[in-house]
C-alpha cells in the first residue's frame, strides 16, 4: 500500500464521503475517486478523438475532397434506408 499525505482539504473530502456512506474506508474512497478519474480520462480521450474526426471531415469538405448532400438529396439517394 502506498502511504500518501493528501493534505487537509482532501482528507476532509474523504471523511465527508465516509460520513455520507459513499465509502466505508479511506482506501475505498480513494479507489472510487481513482476509478471516477479513470472514467473521466477515457471520456476526454473519446471527445478528443471525435473532435479530431470532425476536424478531418471538415477539412475534406472545405477542400472538396468529400462531397456533401442536402437532406433531400440524401433521402432521394436512400442513405437512410
N-end to C-end Cα span? 56 Å
Number of structural domains: 1
Assembly category? single chain
Number of strands: 0
Category by helix and strand content: mainly alpha
Strand content: under 5%
State the major sheet: none
Task: Describe this entry's structure for a reader.
This protein has 81 residues and is mainly alpha-helical. The chain has one domain. The protein is built from three helices and no strands.
Chain-wise SSE layout:
Layout: H1 8-19, H2 26-62, H3 71-76
Could you list some keywords that capture this structure?
mainly alpha, 81 residues, single chain, elongated, 0% strand
Would you summarize the structure shown here?
By secondary structure, the chain is mainly α.
